[in-house]
Structure formats: structure tokens, C-alpha cells
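User: I'm writing a short report section on ligand binding and want a predicted complex to refer to. Could you take this sequence and zinc ion and write out the structure as C-alpha cells? A short remark afterwards would be nice.
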Amino acid sequence: MISKIFQESPHRRWNPLKREWVIVSPHRTQRPWQGQTEEIAAPPSLAYDPTCYLCPGNTRAGGHKTPQYSGTYVFDNDFAALQQDTPSTSLDIDSASLIRAETERGLCRVLCFDPRHDLTLATMDVAAIRRVVEMWADQAADLGARPDIQYVQIFENRGAMMGASNPHPHGQIWATEHIPDEPLAEIANQRGYSRMHDTCLLCDVLKLELEQHQRIVCENDEFISLVPFWAVWPFETLVLSRAHLGSLTEFSPAQQKGLADILKQQTAIYDRLFATSFPYTMGFHQRPTDGEQYPELHFHGHFYPPLLRSATVRKFMVGFEMLGMPQRDITPEAAAQQLRSAAVR
Ligand SMILES: [Zn+2]
Ligand SMILES: [Zn+2]
Ligand SMILES: [Zn+2]
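Assistant: Sure. The C-alpha cells for the complex follow:
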């Protein structure tokens, strides 16, 4: 039978139909919810919200106090999906990988981008976002150095539409014992391309995009943001470093500033597109921290925003998209054009 650990502790279960994993966190109790429930997520208007657990000086649901911080503030999530102290064990009934699971150890941290409750990446200044980039690099180095951590996933859920539980500007960092499926698949394909062509897949994409100039949204000396040719979400973008970099930990000061600037440009464009605080999930894919080299891997960021036509009309991934494959109406070229015109509005 299934032992107690797989009923009570964080673990991952294998899906033999899709050859993918799902993380299960049965220990996680009800999380606090401070996201808006209205249809249109109005941006908060208060610089300080006495009921927000991420504002300086306030007490969080777990009883911990958020200090009077300036700049950024990072802490271990009080309701972490993963835990460090889970004893390592696995399960494979009949050894056929049909009922297969293994414990997944890790850490989940919250990173407040700014003490001010009413800011977002789109409205913070570049110097403030740069402090966030520096903190991401520090966290990637710190967590990646742990022997039990193979991958550091940095991400932000923005807006109640994307499930963000609090409008205060913040992101999350999940560090895991195994490389998650999304980066794992991208790494395998970057490696395969590199072996076949002796070049980097994303360096080659970048070269083609710069030649065609049809899908680029914004750029600076260090980064390009573009709607990828294969985009699934209507206004999905891919943020690519011009230099072949593997990880945030190897950025020069100019590259840190360049990333801060491109994030500001891209999120401000999103906000102008439908005159709303644009919801999205954003995050970076970088080199795993399992001790291997990964020379073929190219640092990049993904923005996955759900909006389709206006501040309230969103795309759903349902029906054929759940059972068959994704589908879109607006072409990536037209989406890039719309985003570019929002930039100069
Ligand atoms: Zn707040
Ligand atoms: Zn590259
Ligand atoms: Zn990626």
C-alpha cells in the first residue's frame, strides 16, 4: 500500500501516460488569500496596506513579522509547497512505473520587490528593479550551492487572474531536488540542437529574429523581448540575453541593469496594451545546479499573460487545447505589432 509519507509529505508522482511528474504537497494547509475577487483587478492605491502581510512591519498568517525593510526582502514561505527535511524515499508498486512516486525536497521563498504596496515591475524604476535582479542572482547562487538542490526556479505570478494571492509586488523562488519538467524538456532540446548544429538554439533564434524584425517588441543593449514564432498565449513573450549566458549568477553589472530595463519596458508595454495592470506569470530558465556544465543552455525569461482582447477577456486553455493541443487566433506577428504600438502610445 501507499505509505504514510506519500499521504503527508511533499513528493512527486509519475505520470506514465505523459512521462511527466506532478508535485503533491499534502502538508500544505489553507493559504491566506488577499487577491481581488472582482472581475477587473484594480491596482492597489495604497502605498502601505495595514492588512497586507508583505508590507513592512505587518504580521504574517504564520505569526512571523515582516520587518521594516527597504529595497528587497526575502523569506522562507510560511506555507511552502516543499520542505527541506522530508526523509528521502521512493515508491514503485510492481516496479512497472505505473504507481510510482518519490519524495521531493526543496525550499520555497518569497521575495518582496519593494516595500511599497502599490508598485509593480511596470511602475518601479529601473534602479529598484535592478536591486531585485541582484537579489535573484544572490538567491540563485545561495540555493544552487546546496548539495540537495538541482534547480532554482525564479518566477512571479502577477494579478488575481493568475492566482496571485496578494497584489504587493513580490515573486517566488522554488528550489528543488530534481530539475522540473519544463526546463528539463527545454534543456534536452537545446542540447540536441547544439549537437546537431554546433551552435546554440536560442542564439540562432535571436539572430533570425533580429534579421526579420517582425516579432521583436522591445530591446536594449543587453536584452531583446519578442513574441516567439511558436507562442501559445496571445501576448506571450520571450526575453533573450544578447550574450550567451547560462545563469543570473554570471551577469555583468551592465547585464543586470539590462535585464531590469527590459522587464520594465515589457511590463509597461503590457499595462498600456489594455490600459490595465496586466496579469501574467513570468519566470526565468537558467542552468541547473546539479554540478553538470550545460554549455548549450541560453538564459531566458518567459512571460505568459492570459489576456486576449481586453482587460477582462482572457484566453482559456480548455476543450481541444486540454485534450488535443494549443490553438491561437491572433498571429504572433500581429501580437508583436500590437505590443509595439502600445510602447509608443
Ligand atoms: Zn503590501
Ligand atoms: Zn546562446
Ligand atoms: Zn524556457
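A remark for your report: The longest strand covers residues 151-158. Residues 186, 285, 300, 302 surround zinc ion (ligand 3) (CB under 6 Å).
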